[in-house]
Structures are given as structure tokens and as C-alpha cells.
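Sequence, please.
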């Protein structure tokens, strides 16, 4: 029996534009002693071929309609009714919005009992790809699909989930980083390694989220002023705490308690809505509550979960 294992080299989280590397190992696990036969042919296992591919599956509910009448790609239509064609999307719901070219790992692999062979699969994620997202109306999910087949047997699939993030605003910086070095070369100087796409993205995130620009909001009622709320910056990283302050010193209307909720809004593009008056969906993540009667000042600490998806836009809206 051949056992297949896959291990993503740098973990399951990647940015668009990065290269995904995955080690795929094929092992011929020896059968138990009481099941072994005297035939020498049983000591070998063979596979005709194996291939790997990355695809992004988009799943929607009844509130979303695709702008195109053709809801399936040519790949899905051509492989929907055959077990002998490599179709990474076989058996999955939704529509394939991104699919890389299949890469052949090997042809005609023979393994003796206890033998194993590993192959490195590498593929670059397109920079225009959507991020991984699990919303109420729309879901985007990424997977590395490994297909393999014995002679005269159906194809078997192994799927490895990935999480893909999009960082807006660093594509221009990456283009600048690709410029050639014009200074004269010196063999005695240590060659500096070029910054990776991940490094450039982290620099862009750090630059964006480190800018402090306090914004004040006066919360009022018809009877007068309730509180002055301050946020110290407008951009935050995943896992960071949103910090704010409440100033009740000039309030004319007493406040007994307050609640602050971190929410995301999912808005579908007008051309993809099932009905014209369809509203946006709101999802709540974290909440901060405090009793503030007789307080002059208070603060807010609201953590941003690591599993949420930063803001993005696709053809469906969002």
C-alpha cells in the first residue's frame, strides 16, 4: 500500500505573489507479516503518475448570483463525468475562480517495501488572487490538490488547505525592489540579499499601521453631549489591540454603560445581488463592555482576532 503525505514548507499561510512550496512523500508501507505472500511482485508498489495544482474555490449562497451565465470553467465541464482525468475541483461545491497549471511530479514510480520518495512542489500565487475568506454569503478557500493514479484505476486526490492573505499597497514597492544594481561591483564586499516579497509586505503593513493620527468623535443625543471618543490610529494589524479613550468630562447627558463591538461588513456588488434591495451582512468578532456611571474618563482595548480577513474587493463585491 502506498501512503502519501504532504508538508507545506513554511506553514499554511501565504501572501498573494509568494511562492508556495510543499514536500510530497510517497511511501510503500510494508504489509503486516500475516498478510504477506510469497510472491516477489507483492514487494513492489507502482503509480502511473502524480500531479499537483493549486486552486481557489468560491462558494456562495442564494443571496449571490454570478454575473456570467456560465458558472463552470472549461476544466470543470470537461472533467465532470470522468474518473481518469485530473480535476482538482471534483467533488467540491462552488466555482473555481483561480487554478494554476498542473505540475507533473513523476511518471511510472516503483517503490519497494519500506521505500519512500519525496518531491518538492513549488508554485507562485498570482498577485491578483482573492484572499481566503469565510463570509456569510461568499467563501473563498485555497487548496493544494495532489492527484495520483495506478494503471487502470481511478484517480485519488489529496487536498492540503492553505490560507492566502492580501496586503494592499505593497505591489509598487516590490516593483521598485526588482531594479538592477547600477553601482560598480566589488568582489571584496559582501553581497546583500534582496528583500523578499514577504519582507516588503511586512514593511508596508508596519508603515501603514505605525502612523498615529488621533481622530475624535463626539457622540451626542437630542438632549446634549454624551461622550468624546478618540481612536489613536485608523489602520491595525491582525492580532493587534484597538485602543481608544472615552472622555465624559464635558458630558451634559450621563452615560451608565457602553459597549463596543468589532464588526466586518460584507457587501455584494449590485450586479451580483439576487434582489436589488439586498443589504450588506455584518459579522461581529470581539466586544468590550464597561459600566461608566460617574466616570470622567475610560479606555477601550479591543483585540483583533488572527483569523479574520483584512479588507479586500473582488468582482462579487465585499
Amino acid at each position: 500500500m502506498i501512503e502519501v503525505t504532504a508538508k507545506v514548507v513554511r506553514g499554511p499561510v501565504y501572501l498573494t505573489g509568494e511562492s508556495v512550496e510543499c514536500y510530497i512523500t510517497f511511501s510503500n508501507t510494508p504489509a503486516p507479516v500475516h498478510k504477506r505472500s510469497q510472491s516477489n511482485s507483492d514487494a513492489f508498489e507502482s503509480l502511473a503518475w502524480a500531479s499537483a495544482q493549486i486552486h481557489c474555490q468560491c462558494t456562495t449562497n442564494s443571496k449571490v448570483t454570478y454575473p456570467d451565465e456560465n458558472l463552470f470553467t472549461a476544466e470543470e465541464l470537461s472533467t465532470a463525468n470522468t474518473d481518469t482525468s485530473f480535476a482538482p475541483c471534483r467533488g467540491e461545491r462552488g466555482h473555481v475562480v483561480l487554478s494554476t497549471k498542473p505540475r507533473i511530479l513523476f511518471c511510472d514510480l516503483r517503490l519497494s517495501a519500506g521505500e519512500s520518495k519525496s518531491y518538492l512542489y513549488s508554485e507562485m500565487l498570482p498577485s491578483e488572487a482573492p484572499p481566503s475568506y469565510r463570509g456569510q454569503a461568499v467563501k473563498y478557500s485555497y487548496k493544494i490538490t495532489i492527484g495520483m493514479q495506478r494503471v487502470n484505476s481511478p484517480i485519488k486526490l489529496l487536498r492540503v488547505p492553505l490560507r492566502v492573505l492580501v496586503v494592499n499597497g505593497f505591489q509598487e514597492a516590490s516593483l521598485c525592489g526588482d531594479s538592477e544594481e547600477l553601482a560598480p561591483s566589488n568582489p571584496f564586499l559582501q553581497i546583500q540579499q534582496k528583500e523578499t516579497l514577504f519582507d516588503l509586505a511586512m514593511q508596508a503593513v508596519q508603515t501603514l499601521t505605525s502612523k498615529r493620527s488621533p481622530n475624535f468623535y463626539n457622540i451626542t443625543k437630542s438632549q446634549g453631549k454624551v461622550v468624546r471618543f478618540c481612536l489613536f490610529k485608523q489602520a491595525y494589524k491582525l492580532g493587534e489591540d484597538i485602543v481608544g479613550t472615552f472622555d465624559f468630562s464635558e458630558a451634559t447627558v450621563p452615560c451608565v454603560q457602553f459597549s463596543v463591538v468589532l464588526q466586518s461588513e460584507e457587501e455584494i456588488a449590485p450586479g451580483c445581488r439576487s434582489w436589488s434591495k439586498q443589504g450588506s451582512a455584518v459579522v461581529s468578532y470581539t466586544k468590550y463592555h464597561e459600566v461608566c456611571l460617574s466616570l470622567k474618563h475610560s479606555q477601550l482595548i479591543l483585540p483583533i482576532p488572527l483569523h479574520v480577513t483584512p479588507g479586500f474587493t473582488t468582482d462579487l463585491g465585499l
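The two ends are 46 Å apart (CA to CA).
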